[in-house]
Amino acid sequence: MSMKLSANRWAQWLVYGDHYSLQLEDDGLLLESRHHRQYIPFSAWDGQLTVSRGLLWGTISLTGYTDEGDPLPFEVFGLPWHRAQQAGQTIYRSYQAYIARYQKRLAMIRPSLLAEYDALVNAPAYVRLSQLRAAQQILVDKLEGEGIPASFLASLDEVMATTLAPVLRGDKQWLKTRNQQWQAMMLNQWQAWFDRIESSPLNDGQRAAVLTDESHTLVVAGPGSGKTSVLVARAAYLIESGQAKPEQLLLLAFGRDAAEELKTRIKTKTGHEVNVTTFHGFARQQLAEHQGQAPMISPLASDETAKAAWLTQTLAEQWQQPTPRKAWDKLHQQQTLPLDDNAELTACAHDSRLHTWVWSRLSRVVQANTIKRALNDKLASFEEQAALKNELAVIWPLYQAYKQALKAENAVDFDGLITQATKLFQQRKFTTPIQFVMVDEYQDISPARLAMLEALCHGKAEGETQSPRASLFAVGDDWQAIYRFAGADVSLTTEFAQRFGDSEICWLTTCYRYPSTLGKVAQQFIEQNPKQLSKQLDYARDKAPAKAPKAIKVITDDKLEKTLASLAKKYANAEHAVSVMLLGRTHAIRPDALESWQNAYPSLALRYTTAHASKGQEAHYVFILGLDEGVFPAKPRSLSLDEALLGKNEEPIEHAEERRLFYVALTRAQKQVWLVHQKGHASPFVEELKGYL
To answer: Which of these, 536, 564, 493, 550, lies nearest to 671 by C-alpha position?
Structure first.
């Protein structure tokens, strides 16, 4: 049916620029003005139309809607009045017939639309954002298949439009509420199981974390907050609830000991073998499985003696060539090298200090895995670029020799293992059963390891339009990120939500290790860095008597032995020795008298370790030694090649990494910490802490 109503010539001239003509089409209205035509489909209109009378002519007013649902008012002027009234009725009847036609079409797909909605709402699991988007797309496609834009649904069936609206909008808040309701049901259903899965019942935060299953979930776990329990319980829950078969799980830890502990605990709880391994172990497994054999690890990577022999020989060879020799001499004159000023370079090829210097830089160039020009470009942003390029000039030929040596052995190093596995996953010429990837100590992750995980989680297998993606469940604590020197990047944790759009962050905030008197001081100290994630911890040990001794004390090193003696006396009649950890910034701070103290104080179980090595450990009492100016925090050295290649440290506070290291040291103690420094040489950390005590 077509009908056209226009203003006469004179009226058209008077309404210059406005609409003066209206034409009824089968499924909409066409409005015309002098300069353009505007089509309003019935699907973008609500059927409301007003005919008003002026002195000479009639006006038809109506409101259309944009795709976003915003109103767009239109007016057609200068129409003959009696015809305008008839046109209004004709248009309305035509609109009603159109609605009836589309209501019939909607009735045909109504059951499948509601089934899709119900499947999402009543899914027997946590629903991810990606599932919400998939359901949204299916609903939109079904509607559009019948020519029904989602925005038109309310005009056809208001109740149904209201029901489907959150899915059609992809409403994240609605999904969050839906998941919270599902979690509340599961907490009820699995309560007894959560009470007994670990030696102590899991707390509310731990239970919520186990039940969270977004595509990317980060569990931020403070020291002593039971993160291992969450990993074990989640693996067990996924298997026992039928959401995963054991072979669909992968747990990655940074060290073999941590991996073994997790593997054993999961086997004990579930009776199932789950793949728990290190990043390198996993890379090796996968390469062996999909390429027929495991790559051979070069002795240069795995054997210190072989590495030292290769460095000695390669340095000697380099120094016999005039160009490299010149570059080395230049560095030696600048006193950059850790050698005596009057040492003859050719006699130093086996010097272990020189080997350490070379290896720290060489290993970073190996990690960078790129061309020399790219490295020089990276160095160009630093003030010290001239000195850094001098270092690169001597390291680059060693890097080339190193690559050559690996090639000759037909072997790889540990970085190469990760790179090869990443390539394998990116090609994705095979399907993998892995659906749930869990990572312990996520704050220690490096970009290369994360690239391997992303290739595993996000790759597509050949012939698949979209393989189901494995989810990433990461547990860590940005406050304890202390491995930047090894290539770890704390921003991968602090910027988790920005990096992964589909993400959820859970918090384990109950600390079981130490009392609030220690925790609050440590927290105040670490939160001076605004880049760290802010968390409010609470302390399970605060049931202690009100007269508990001060949790943090400051002493000078001449009082150390006396303090140990009085501690030993306090526990002289105890059934078991109490654990005492002595921590230092480096191995050099280990006290010479440690063995004689151990013999003198049998009621104390003494051990020395570095702050880095103490991560994950605990003791009743902790002494942090060598808290002297320039020792802890370590004195900033002139920028070296290995540090520069990590990129600029953008953290807005001095000693950011050293602060985290000190925080780790502080939080090893269950009862009390002593900060030990030389008289008159207290480190800035000690001075700062005194202000919080």
So the answer is: 550
Distance of CA 415 to the CA centre of its chain: 21
562 assigned to a ligand binding site: no
Beta pairing partners, 74 = 62
Beta bridge partners of 609: 583
Is 459 one of the annotated binding-site residues?
A: no
Q: How far is CA 92 from CA 45, 66, 99, in A?
A: 11, 20, 11
216 forms bridges with which residues in the sheet? 472, 503
The answer to whether the annotation marks 221 as part of a ligand binding site is yes
The CA dihedral of 486, 492, 493, 499, to the nearest 10 degrees, is: -170
What Å distances lie between residue 657 and 218, 626, 641, 644, 664, CA to CA?
Answer: 21, 17, 18, 15, 11
Q: How many CA atoms lie within 13 A of 260 on its CB side?
A: 3
> Residue 224 annotated as binding?
yes
And the tokens for 613? Answer: 């090595």
Distance CA 13, CA 10 (A): 5
Helices (H) and strands (E) in the chain, counts: 27, 22
How does strand 471-476 pair with strand 216-221?
Answer: parallel
CB 447 within 8 A of CB 480: no
Q: 211, 126 in Cβ contact below 8 A?
A: yes
Residue with tokens 């595509």: 215
| Mean pLDDT across the chain | 87
Find the mean pLDDT for residues 638-644. Answer: 84
Query: Is 626 one of the annotated binding-site residues?
Result: no
19: DSSP letter:
B
State the pLDDT at residue 463: 44
For the stretch 90-121, pLDDT in tens is: 888 888 888 898 899 899 999 999 999 999 99
First to last CA, the chain: 86
Rg of the chain in Å (alpha carbons): 35
Q: Binding residue per annotation — 78? A: no
Please choose, from the candidates 395, 466, 450, the residue with its C-alpha nearest in 3D space to the C-alpha of residue 645. Answer: 395
Known binder of ligand: residue 226? yes
CA 546 to chain centroid, in Å, comes to 40
Helix or strand holding residue 236 (H, E): helix 227-240
361/358 Cα distance (integer angstroms): 5
Q: For tokens 């880095």, what's the residue?
A: 612
pTM (two decimals): 0.84
What's the burial of 238, exposed, middle or buried (CB within 10 Å: 0-12/13-18/19+)?
buried
* Sheet hosting strand 619-624, strand order edge to edge: 552-556, 669-677, 619-624, 578-584, 604-610
C-beta of residue 482 within 8 angstroms of C-beta of residue 476: no
pLDDT band at 193 (very low <50, low <70, confident <90, very high): very high
Q: What is the pLDDT of residues 118-128, one digit of tens each?
A: 999 999 999 99
Tell me which residue of 426, 693, 427, 457 sits closest to 554, measured CA to CA: 693
223 is in an annotated binding site: yes
Q: Give how far Cα 457 sits from Cα of 216, 277, 472, Å.
A: 10, 17, 7
Query: 281: which 2 tokens?
Result: 């172990």
Q: Phi, psi (5° rounding) for residue 56?
A: -110, -35
DSSP sequence for 505-542:
EEEE-EE-SS-HHHHHHHHHHHTTSTTSPP---EETTT
